[in-house]
Amino acid sequence: MKEKRELILQSVLELFMEEGINGLKVSKIASHAEIGKGTVYEYFNSKEELFLGAVEYGIIQLGEAITKKLKKSNTFQESFFSLVDCIAEITAKGPFLSIMSDSANMPFSKEATVRLKSIMQNAMESFMGIMSEIIAKGVDEGLLKLPADSNYVKAMVIIITNMTLQNIHSGETNFEELRVFYYNACLKLFS
Predict the structure, then answer these.
(1) What residue numbers bound the domain in which 12 lies?
(2) What confidence category does residue 73 fall into, taking pLDDT thresholds of 50, 70 and 90?
(3) Same domain flag for 6 and 68
(4) Are residues 10 and 70 in the same domain?
(5) I need a labelling partner for 113 at 20 to 30 A (CA). Which of 62, 104, 122, 123 fits?
């Protein structure tokens, strides 16, 4: 059984996807999580805290899912496709990447905006670390060369996450072609 804090954060993620930021009413969150409204206030003092907590929670979920998939991958290509597939699965079943892409437009205080920027920067660094490990496999296999600049790794992460988000939310169904495009782009970018 999930802890109450986790139920609250998952509810925030789901309600955000259904109704946007204006749908984040404490009463709705509590009802969705099947807990009392007062319980939400035991964990979070404001809508901003709820949202920021949900973003951090989503980042942790995504990181754990990617790590789990990568443990089952032996080669560079398997690892690369596992990363892409995980991002696609998370995007298709939940709002997390949508929240990340919409986060700059949220009507929050300056302090919350600064904190959100820090959360997003930490997430990018984490994803760049994962991508760097995958690229290192490609280097070990003789398929890739180490990038001279870490911005190449960042560019690959941005390409995969943004294009996957756009592809899934636009209803395009041929994800296999996109996977192959990412893979070939990575081979070219790091050759």
Answers:
(1) 1-45
(2) very high
(3) no
(4) no
(5) 62
